[in-house]
Amino acid sequence: MRKMTVAVLCLIGTTALTACEKSEEADVSRTLKDLNVIDESNLNDVMLNAADPNEAVAYFRRAATSNPEKISLQRGLGLSLVRAGRATEGAVVWSKVLEHKESKDADKIQYADALIRTGEWKKAEDMLDSVPPTLETFERYRLEAIIADTNKEWKKADSFYEIATGMTTQPASVMNNWGYSKLSRGEYSEAERLFTEAVTYDPSLFTAKNNLVLARGAQRKYTLPLIRVSQAERAQLLHTMALAAVKQGDVSTGKGLLQDAIDTHPQYFEAAVRSLETLES
User: Is-annotated flag, keyword Signal (predicted)?
Assistant: First the structure.
């Protein structure tokens, strides 16, 4: 009897241990699964924000092929393709994302962005129109502004640009686009103001610096603005201003600026030398 009791107790103990082991295995499995999700999410963010665009494309393409049901990987592939300057491929991926059962209205905005980059303006406009007006994001208003600009709907464009700049802490690129819009309309002083603000927010944005010089040149302001530039950038801006002066008919001023550009550049400035030789001949 005592032996049977001991056997039963051993059996109960073994069963309990087995149950504990299974419970621990399940807990470990769940923990590892959660960690994998966290690690994958972090890696996705790293690849999107820090990696070389083409490396990100390769990563997300491999991951999406292995896990075709994960919409997050498809989104990552679409974003990285656009970042890598492969908007046509990106548009194809985003169109597939929209077919996924977990797709959202925000995906339509990304698709519209890819479409704009491939020149499919009407399709991009229709895609944005299909997004509910309650979804108000920086990216949405930025794209709305660009499309309104293309349609020469200036009041709408200005309104959208203004809203977009207020929805981000890094408005330099939007201000540069807005300034270029003003420049194309002939509103040179307003364009100059916007380009100056863009450079204030991002001193490394050379496109805005160059556009600022164009806006000043259109007003016959042939001095460089007080902005931070490298020696090579200063030479390039002088070259831009020289060409703006020539376009205005101020050829002698243009020649002087070209000579300044050549003297300023730390290396041989072939483009400026060729422009000066053309004017002198």
Answer: yes
